[in-house]
């Protein structure tokens, strides 16, 4: 049987996850500046004091959510790089995974948190450092090797790869915002989203 200390740790971990999920909803709805710890506590169904027992501030909670969102994005790109296939097939697989994740509201809200963190001046210094520090950890920079490889192979159009990566994520973020504002929003399939990136002359890519 699990020891009491292990059970207590499981309870603490579950409680922290409960608070983080509630905070994700509140931050997405109200933004970090307008959000109060009491709002998060109410959403989580917990007392104000209990939230402070696990976290020092709303800024700490926001920072953790941004890290979670960033790590989630980088992880899917790493999986795409490991996917067997051509660069365009890797990009298509990654796009399918991202679009399919929009079925889960938590993933969609994490995209919105990243947008808030990228566009708001009133964010914790730790978050600013995370976003402006090591650019090799940003989704745009991590996607560049796939795009560049696709261009070398003639599968992806010849254009500035950074511009293409920025455009790609602008599509993704825009869809995430629409999905939050309009839950029934139809999400395009990967073929449609990738159409403007494909070099039709050099690609053996076929629509299904």
Automatic annotation (TrEMBL):
Residue ranges crossing the lipid bilayer per the database entry: none
InterPro entries: Homeodomain-like_sf (IPR009057), HTH_TetR (IPR001647), Tet_transcr_reg_TetR-rel_C_sf (IPR036271)
PROSITE patterns linked to this entry: HTH_TETR_2
Protein's UniProt keywords contain Transcription regulation: yes
Domain annotation HTH tetR-type: ranges: 13-73
Protein origin, superkingdom: Bacteria
DNA-binding region, residue intervals: 36-55
UniProt keyword terms in alphabetical order: DNA-binding, Transcription, Transcription regulation
One matching Pfam family: TetR_N
Keyword Transcription regulation: yes
Name of the protein: TetR family transcriptional regulator
Organism this protein belongs to: Lysinibacillus pakistanensis
């Amino acid at each position: 049987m699990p020891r009491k200390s292990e059970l207590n740790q499981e309870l603490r971990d579950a409680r922290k996850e409960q608070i983080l999920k509630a905070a994700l909803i509140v931050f997405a709805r109200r933004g970090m500046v307008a959000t109060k710890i009491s709002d998060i506590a109410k959403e989580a169904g917990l007392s104000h004091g209990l939230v402070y027992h696990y976290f020092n501030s709303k800024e700490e909670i926001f920072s953790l959510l941004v890290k979670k969102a960033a790590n989630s994005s980088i992880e899917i790109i790493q999986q795409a790089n490991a996917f067997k296939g051509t660069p365009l097939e890797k990009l298509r697989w990654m796009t399918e995974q991202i679009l399919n994740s929009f079925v889960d509201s938590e993933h969609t809200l994490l995209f919105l948190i990243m947008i808030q963190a990228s566009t708001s001046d009133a964010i914790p210094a730790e978050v600013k450092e995370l976003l402006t520090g090591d650019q090799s950890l940003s989704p745009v920079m991590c996607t560049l090797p796939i795009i560049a490889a696709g261009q070398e192979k003639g599968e992806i159009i010849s254009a500035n790869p950074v511009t293409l990566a920025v455009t790609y994520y602008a599509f993704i973020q825009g869809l995430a915002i629409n999905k939050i504002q309009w839950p029934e929003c139809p999400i395009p399939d990967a073929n449609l989203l990738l159409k403007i990136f494909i070099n039709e002359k050099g690609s053996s890519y076929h629509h299904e």
